[in-house]
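Subject: sequence -> structure tokens, single chain

Hey, anyone have a minute? Need the predicted structure for the following. Not urgent.
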Amino acid sequence: MKTFFLISILNLLNPHTPTTAAQALPSVDALVSTKSNGRQAVFPGFQEYLKNHLVYPELARKHGIEGVVCVQVNIDETGKVGPVRILKKLGFGCDEAVISLLQNMPRWQPALSEGKMTQQSLNLNIRFKLN
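Reply:
Had a minute. Here:
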């Protein structure tokens, strides 16, 4: 039986920090599937990594594109990010930016099930927002 957790990582930037049109305000919602007697895959400092590494595509900024890219990513039993599949496209280079971000990440802490490291699929919603 699988249990689903909804993780919302919000307020990635200090709300008192002024932003420009060139800055992205990324956020992520994750629907995580894991076995009820295990631990989900985690990446400590994910929100900071997202804030520092997500590139808001110039084409998307130029056209004022905001929205969400939904992806499914697999984290293997060693913590390596595996294939990334786009579930909902945003376009204007945003989909490619998310794929690049995820595929170039350092290793995660893998999921645990019954005390053993195991692969896990995560559904992530990466939000692009301009100010």
